[in-house]
């Protein structure tokens, strides 16, 4: 005999779902902004770029040790209501008594909602652009097969936005932008080469397949499965890594500074087993 669902049970389930949606819509953005503000504060930087004293590693969601203002960033009663409703709703739908996941709070959170999105566009003057870069004598990198090149660009005290342009010869390349909440000792642009992006704490295992193979077009380094090292600066994803047809068009973009830190421009060729890519790029800040 099938299970009968009473009118009362159906009403409670509907009311529960409506309450969850209402709570999320009203408080999610505010709560997330506060969480990321605490994360930045734990590294000695506030989202607006102001340095603050840090006495040691802190849990960004645990509040200050002494229970100051940071300890009350999120309304505990509200968070508790949302958590209980979510667990209760999942148990009713699954029909079991599964315990709450032991994942750390915030492991599956999306990118920082307080950061504005980047702008990106293309131009068709590929040949002229590459000739300009060649004439300048810098801004040319050979990205080997299976490699990822990270161009680290610190924010500049006289600027408020970052601007970038790039193109490649013959073949496409993966490109994305991250932001590291740290204070750089220099304004100089630096370059690192690796066979993966583990140093940025983003788990990209299985993300890029062989060039031209199944799933090759799904090149991105989203926040899923990311691992965090509390001893390293927090990193936010501004633009996920996707394959760009930079051999056909010049890709250009800009992003407003979210604060003081270092932009990580990722040029990802890890999906290519045989082909190296010649990259032409230019970055500068604007006011």
TrEMBL record:
Signal peptide: none annotated. Residues 47-73, 89-118, 193-236 are annotated as: Disordered. Residues 124-285 form the GOLD domain. Keywords: Acetylation. InterPro entries: GOLD_dom, GOLD_dom_sf, Golgi-PI4KB_interaction. Residues 95-107, 196-206 have a biased composition (Acidic residues). Gene3D superfamilies: GOLD domain (2.60.120.680). GO terms for cellular component: Golgi membrane. This is GOLD domain-containing protein. The keyword Heme does not apply. Pfam families: GOLD_2. It comes from the Eukaryota.
């Amino acid at each position: 005999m099938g299970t009968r669902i009473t009118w009362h049970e159906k009403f409670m389930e509907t009311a529960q779902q409506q309450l969850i949606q209402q709570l999320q819509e009203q408080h999610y953005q505010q709560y997330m902004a506060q969480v990321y503000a605490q994360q930045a504060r734990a590294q000695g930087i506030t989202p607006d770029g102001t340095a603050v004293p840090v006495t040691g590693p802190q849990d960004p969601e645990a509040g200050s040790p002494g229970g100051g203002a940071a300890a009350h960033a999120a309304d505990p009663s509200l968070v508790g209501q949302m958590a209980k409703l979510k667990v209760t709703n999942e148990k009713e739908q699954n029909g079991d008594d599964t315990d709450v996941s032991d994942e750390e709070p915030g492991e599956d959170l999306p990118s920082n909602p307080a950061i504005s999105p980047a702008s990106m566009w293309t131009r068709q003057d590929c040949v002229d652009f590459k000739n300009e870069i060649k004439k300048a004598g810098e801004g040319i990198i050979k990205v080997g097969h299976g490699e990822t090149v990270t161009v680290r660009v610190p924010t500049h005290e006289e600027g408020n936005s970052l601007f970038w342009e790039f193109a490649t010869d013959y073949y496409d390349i993966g490109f994305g932008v991250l932001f590291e909440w740290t204070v750089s000792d220099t304004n100089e642009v630096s370059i690192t080469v690796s066979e993966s992006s583990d140093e940025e704490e983003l788990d990209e295992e299985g993300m890029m397949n062989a060039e031209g193979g199944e799933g090759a077009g799904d090149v991105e380094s989203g926040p899923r499965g990311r691992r965090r090292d509390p001893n390293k600066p927090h990193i936010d994803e501004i633009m996920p890594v996707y394959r760009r047809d930079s051999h056909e068009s010049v890709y250009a973009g800009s992003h407003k500074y979210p604060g003081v830190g270092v932009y990580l421009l990722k040029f990802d060729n890890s999906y290519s087993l045989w082909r190296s890519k010649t990259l032409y790029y230019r970055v500068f800040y604007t006011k």
